[in-house]
Amino acid sequence: MRILVVEDSKVVSKVMRHLLTQELNCDVDIAPDLAQARQLLASNDYFVAITDLNLPDAPEGEVVKLVLAQQIPCIVLTGSWNPLERKRLLQLGIVDYVLKENRFSYQYTARLVKRLQRNQCVKVLVADDSVVSRKYIRSLLEQHLFQVIEADDGLAALDTLQDNPDIKLLITDYNMPRMDGFGLIINVREQFSREEMAIIGLSSDSDQSLSARFIKNGANDFLQKPFVHEEFHCRVLNTLDALDMMTKLWEQANLDYLTNVFNRRYFFNLYEQKLPSRVESQGELSLGLLDIDYFKKVNDTYGHDVGDEVLVEFAARLTQSFGQRFCVARFGGEEFVVAFKGLNIEKTFTLLDCFRTQLESTPIITSNGKVTITVSTGLATYRSSETIDNMLRRADLALYNAKASGRNTVCIAQT
């Protein structure tokens, strides 16, 4: 990713280059005037441009129009506050207008660029019965590179969420036909937690209790219409940053630090309390307990760094084979578990035995060369009113039998 900074101050240019490379590990080109900016724009593709408003050869902000003509997102830096100039620039479609007041201004700008990079993968649903309002909010969001989907009321929004479960932000008006904003939020929160989706409520209603009611019903934030351009973007940015932080905390609690598959804690939280109801809704459940054969020998022969590489690749292969449909978790060390919901013992055995064969025939490429590993597996299927602990004990016994019979095999626990 390449970023253009157009700035005649060497100090500001140096600060921006440092912050951008620190935040994004990107390439940063510096142009001290309009002439050099024009040359760089002609020969490079830029993700975003950060431009000073007043340059020696362009004192009226001509560089902004030059950047926008290239359809490059533009962030304007300026040393003075001019309300009329700000309004004119925002109408041109710049990303933001930042005063060069202190170091925080430059940190905000770097953080904004990082947010723009992430926004390209973020879907936002805008629910509002007013076409004018929807289109205005859409234009603001697209300036920040979001993927935007529209819905004209609460029921249409729910249908859209069913078709697009990867939507990360819902922006909803209060007054809508068929289902209002409160009804929409209540329904959404039954399906999506705060870690999965953020919600911002909007309203032009003068009722001062609306903001509290929105937040109590599950919204993350609330904006009164009409809102200021910058306030909208700041609220969206802060809301998504908070969502990212919650996601990161959830991952730290539920994903294995090395292999990035689910950890033991997540697995037990998923199945310990609700095993009978989960099996009832899914028909059947089988557990495969997998243990890499002679893994200590891998560590002793190649070192623990290579051992970690083997674990990472083994987990990646498990995820590739089963992770799209089933729960893959690391229990610790070289032991992993896969929960096959909805599959009987015969189909599960076939899948695990196929995985075992492919693993044996495809060496793992490590920093110390190729390493061939095999895996022993114990397999158990759910019995009526059984706990997850008991299922795992039977799978562990089957794993013991697999090792006792020579390893590199799949054994089924007795029913």
UniProtKB/TrEMBL annotation:
Gene Ontology terms for molecular function: diguanylate cyclase activity
Keywords noted in UniProt: Nucleotidyltransferase, Phosphoprotein, Transferase
Top-level EC class as recorded in UniProt: transferase
Xref: Gene3D superfamilies: 3.30.70.270, 3.40.50.2300
Segments forming domain Response regulatory: 2-115, 123-240
CDD domains: GGDEF (cd01949), REC_1_GGDEF (cd19921), REC_2_GGDEF (cd17544)
EC number: 2.7.7.65
Catalysed reaction equations from the record: 2 GTP = 3',3'-c-di-GMP + 2 diphosphate
Pfam entry (one): GGDEF
Organism: Shewanella youngdeokensis
Domain annotation GGDEF: ranges: 283-415
InterPro entries: CheY-like_superfamily, Diguanylate_Cyclase, GGDEF_dom, Nucleotide_cyclase, Rev_trsase/Diguanyl_cyclase, Sig_transdc_resp-reg_receiver
The protein's name: diguanylate cyclase
SMART domains linked: GGDEF, REC
Superkingdom of this protein's organism: Bacteria
4-aspartylphosphate, modified sites: D52, D173
